[in-house]
Amino acid sequence: MNRIFQKPGNAIQWFDPRGRQLGYLAFILNRITGMGLALYLLLHLIMLGKLAQGPQAYNSFIETVHHPVFIFGELLVIFAALIHGLNGLRIILTSFGIGVEKHKPLFTVLMIAALVSGVYFAARMIAR
Amino acid sequence: MSEKWSLHIEVQRQKGKEQPHFDRFDLEISPEATVLDAVEMIWAFKDRSLCFGHACHHSTCGACGMRVNGVEKLTCITLISEVTQNGGTLRLQPLRNLPVISDLVVDLTPLYHRMAEVKHPSVHPVEENEGVASQQIAQAGKSNNPYTRLADCIECGLCISVCPAAMTSPAYIGPAVLAGAQLAVVMDEHVCAIVDTQNGVWRCHSAYECSEVCPSHVQPAQRIMQLRRHLLSQRIRRFFGLQSLHQRKQ
Question: What is the pTM of this model?
Answer without folding.
Answer: 0.86
